[in-house]
Specification:
With 60 residues, this protein is an all-alpha fold. The protein is built from 3 helices and no strands. The structure holds calcium ion (CA).
Length: 60
């Protein structure tokens, strides 16, 4: 998400900053941050990113 092709805590922080409008994401960043592909970057994307890092599949 942050360009290093891995998802880690930095991506969580970046997504939170986008959600809180602390940073203005580029098109690529907002696309990458929309982890659940519902068209908006919100807290659910933060949750999804954390789940990916933890290896948790919410549908299990
Ligand atoms: Ca989303």
């Amino acid at each position: 998400m942050n360009g290093d092709n891995t998802i880690n805590i930095l991506d969580v922080i970046k997504t939170i900053n986008i959600v809180l409008e602390k940073i203005q994401p580029t098109f690529e960043e907002s696309y990458a941050a929309d982890v659940n592909n519902d068209g908006v970057v919100d807290v659910m994307d933060v949750v999804c990113t954390v789940n990916i890092i933890l290896g948790t599949n919410p549908s299990d």
